[in-house]
Amino acid sequence: MVLSQKLHEAFKGTVERITGPRTVSAFKEKGVLSVSEFVIAGDNLVAKCPTWSWESGEPSKRKPYLPPEKQFLITRNVPCLRRAASVEEEYEASGGEVLIDNEDNDGWLATHGKPKETRSDEDEDLPSMESLEISKKNSIQPINSYMGGEEEDDIPDMAEFEEVDNIIETDPSTYLVAHEPDDDNILRTRTYDVSITYDKYYQTPRIWLTGYDESRMLLQPELVLEDVSQDHARKTVTIEDHPHLPGKHASVHPCRHGAVMKKIIDVLMSRGVEPEVDKYLFLFLKFMASVIPTIEYDYTMDFDLGSSSH
Amino acid sequence: MAEHEPKGSLLQFAPMQSSVDEGFWHRLSSLKLNKLGIDDSPIPITGFYAPCSHSQVSNHLTLLAESLPSESSEASLAPEPSRGNRNRCSVPGILYNTNTVESFHALDKHNLLKEEARKIWDDIQTGKAVEDSAVLSRFLLISFADLKKWNFHYWFAFPALMLDPPANVVNLKPASQWLSLEEAESLSTACNEWRSSRSTADVPFFLVSIDSNSRATVRHLKDWEACQSDAQKILFGFYDPCHLPNNPGWPLRNFLALISARWNLKTVQFFCYRENRGFADMGLSIIGEALITVPQGWRDNIPNAVGWELNKGRKISRCIRLAQSMDPTRLAVSAA
Description:
Chain A is α+β, with helices and mostly antiparallel strands. Chain A is 31% helix and 16% strand. In chain A, strands 1-2-5-6-8-7 form a six-stranded antiparallel β-sheet. Chain A has a two-stranded antiparallel sheet with strand order 3-4. Chain A has a two-stranded antiparallel ribbon with strand order 9-10. Mean pLDDT of chain A is 73; it is low at 95-145, 147-164 and 178-182. Chain B has helices at 22-36, 101-106, 109-126, 128-131, 175-178, 181-196, 224-230, 251-263, 323-326, 328-335; strands at 9-10, 18-20, 43-49, 61-63, 89-98, 139-146, 151-161, 168-174, 205-210, 216-219, 233-239, 267-273, 275-276, 279-280, 286-291, 305-308, 318-321. Chain B has two domains: 14-162 and 301-335, Cytidine Deaminase, domain 2; 168-300, 3-Layer(aba) Sandwich (Cytidine Deaminase, domain 2), CATH 3.40.140.100.
């Protein structure tokens, strides 16, 4: 994290402590949610997409302005069958839709025909997250996960225990699922725990990602960035402490969420649809799908976005 | 007659897979440092699982921070019960956390597994497993928490009682093909109701009775006798974490042991319940017939058990390194 980011976090924390949570609805005017609207929208998400549930998280991290059993939303074990970077390459190759950063710094709008950048051959093999400030700072070895498999020198090699261990299991009824991926597609299957918290400062939901490799070992947050649209990864996805869970997690920074949600709501209203606040998270998750295009979390209920105005 | 019956093929089960949330190791560390000290007596823990909810990935037995007892001194050393969450069916487990890497390797894994298998068998014999079916999936975790390096060595076991000889399977196919259209629709509705009711959402083993009007009802295991009179067909259903189209998941193993030991059935129609995006999916769910041929005396002794989890196909423990998120020195440096 760069210094300016840290200063901002400290500032944000102070403001959050001394200001009360939003109680008046500004959903249509500003695209933001009050605390009670967040709970209403969350209840509706859980009801319509039951893979999501409310959780209370770490007792020491509980926010007093949210009900204790409804601190944040989570869906676990969401598949991510391929990397976002490879999807974008395919799009670019076919001249299809890509995400651009415009001057307004909106960054979320899709448009047509981004000119393919000329890259040198060696660039193509490098992970594009290299340009991220977060990964520059950390000197992390490019291993696939926290999972050691006992490689470090100071740890006794488990292989020597393999033979002496007293496990004698021969069982014809065990169907062994291949853990050694021989197919490229299997190798690329990761799973994610996706959570949504309420950001009191920005008064919007905020999304967090915890990644696991194909044997369900924790991924380093930096590797999670491979599953984030690279255009967004460069500026909007950061690695921070989760407000309700231990450890560092990747998160889509909420500084533009209100503005983008306001735009989405304006578009709906211009089409004569009156947006309802309990649908907020469906809209929000659809919008998030442009940032994390390959993580197949559930927001796809059949719903009308609001009641049609007459 | 028996000579002409199909013998089928060997029924093979996809092993349960483990998944440990970072929060579990954080709470274990603080429990160890602030409460347990060098006390290494086994700790009751709770694992969580849910039916498979995607055609391409299986669900896992997951450990979270809440799997461990709370640290507060007045609370007893038992995890807080959480009931009614459909995405978190509780499974009782036990944790042996050793103080040294040597004692971790010295644990008698054969006997530890046998001990847990005996508990499952006892619950089958006494009928407790019929009342509270979660005990059928009881599990075991051994670990060594190296709090100097923030490395955690661990190994899961999911004890499965073995039928001897093993069961065969016939007519295994998607539930949508096995059942008539009316039956499949009725079963789908009944399962969704079961899963959305707070009192049954996390009850992982159940009975399905289908009457002569193709109407399906999901019922508790303890209603087995009552089902005999009014059902045309009875299926033995369970929440299947596995996504494979041709294999049931691990929980069916102890379920078959229960069915065989308690009700002495030779042919068991089993229903592997799976979901898509949180709703019953009869295309992903599978139904098959298990043919059980255990001899009369099989249930007089505790059956053998298997179930140590493999690590990438090998019989070795796993290790996770969390220095980056737990080591106070590193955290101080990265915060500077």
